[in-house]
Design goal:
The structure is a single chain. By secondary structure, the protein is an alpha+beta fold. It has 2 domains: 4-10 and 67-155, no CATH class; 15-59. 31% of the residues lie in helices and 34% in strands. It has 3 helices and 8 strands; from the N terminus they run E-H-H-E-E-E-E-E-E-E-H. The chain has helices at residues 15-39, 44-59, 146-155; strands spanning 4-10, 63-70, 73-80, 84-92, 98-101, 112-116, 126-132, 136-142. The strands form 2 sheets. Strands 1-2-3-4 form a 4-stranded antiparallel beta sheet, with helices on one face. The protein has a 4-stranded mixed beta sheet with strand order 5-7-8-6, with no helix packed on it. Helix 1 (15-39) runs antiparallel to helix 2. The longest helix has 25 residues, at 15-39.
Amino acid sequence: MDSFKEQLVTRKSDNSVFIKRALIFIASLLIAVVLFIFLNVMSLILIAMLFWGAYILIRNFDVEYEYICTNGDLDIDKITAKSRRKRLISVDLKSVSDFGSLKGKNLNKDYSIIDATSGESEDESYFIQCKDTKYGMCNVLITPDEDMLEVIKTYLPRTIRR
């Protein structure tokens, strides 16, 4: 029987994302004013394209992560602007070298870090230490709910299960 569980985690926006969005909006307004002053009516198409590009750039800051656990394989996808999906990593949970809560944990600085957390607090986040063909040894940071955490723990090696 197949085991399947999925979870969608929305990345919380912080102040830096708000500032970047505001700067993109202000820059597009300033460029639109300059285009209108120098090119008058002919610039309306350019201004419309400029605002469309700014809109696309601002939407790119909306990030979600989807965790999909199927028969011991954890797939993590990054969803940008609720339209583009990119596979970040696939982890075979049976070959994980370490797993635990991120709270108070100092991760190995030599390993790659893949941050797929909600960005809120370290208390709810967990790390998975594994070997990947693309990233080498890496720490995958996730924010699973209780159900996903139980599914992940069932496939971990007994020496790591906590």
